[in-house]
Design the sequence.
């Protein structure tokens, strides 16, 4: 049986970069080598894509860059630019497993790249991802479908002052960024009557 080429993509530019690395390692460890050829693609904090050594990443948590990775839409694949001899070669991928957390990963941006490449991928599509990562939009959609939601308030940087009595909320509260994941930037504020959830 011909093996399936799977690319696990992790890292990224969001503050959840390190969380994504841990998620990526966990998934890569569980990929069945009898069925899949594993390719680990790391996105740096600056947004540069690299093919890295899968064994070093899985076993030692080491990012060992082997080649630059460039999307190649007409061929439904990637280009690899070897870092030592500068040789360019195609990399055919059958399915992508994205594990980039937060912005440019879970918000539909990365999924849009995969759609352009016409490569199947794991997870929600562009629209669903964009709606789901935004807590204001997703809770509004849930309420329209009569799905119970916790009480919340959304404040922006322009809300310099507000009347805490008008919020009518009991402490403690959780403060969350509106359009990021839920692993970074979350605080439990005992004395802060502000919540964006």
Sequence:
């Amino acid at each position: 049986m011909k093996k399936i080429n799977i690319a696990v993509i992790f890292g990224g530019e969001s503050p959840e970069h390190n969380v994504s690395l841990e998620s990526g390692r966990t998934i890569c460890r569980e990929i069945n080598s009898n069925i899949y050829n594993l390719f680990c693609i790391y996105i740096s904090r600056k947004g540069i894509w690299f093919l890295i050594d899968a064994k070093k990443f899985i076993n030692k948590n080491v990012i060992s860059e082997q080649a630059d990775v460039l999307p190649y839409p007409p061929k439904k694949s990637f280009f690899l630019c070897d870092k030592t001899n500068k040789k360019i070669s195609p990399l055919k991928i059958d399915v992508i497993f994205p594990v980039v957390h937060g912005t440019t990963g879970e918000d539909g941006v990365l999924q849009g790249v995969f759609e352009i490449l016409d490569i199947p991928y794991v997870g929600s599509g562009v629209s669903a991802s964009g709606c789901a990562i935004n807590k204001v939009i997703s809770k509004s959609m849930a309420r329209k479908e009569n799905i119970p939601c916790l009480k919340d308030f959304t404040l922006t940087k322009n809300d310099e002052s507000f009347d805490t009595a008008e919020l009518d909320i009991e402490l403690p509260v959780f403060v969350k960024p509106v359009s990021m994941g839920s692993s970074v930037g979350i605080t439990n504020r005992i004395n802060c009557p502000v919540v964006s959830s």
Q: What stands out?
A: Residues 190-197 have pLDDT under 50 and may be disordered.
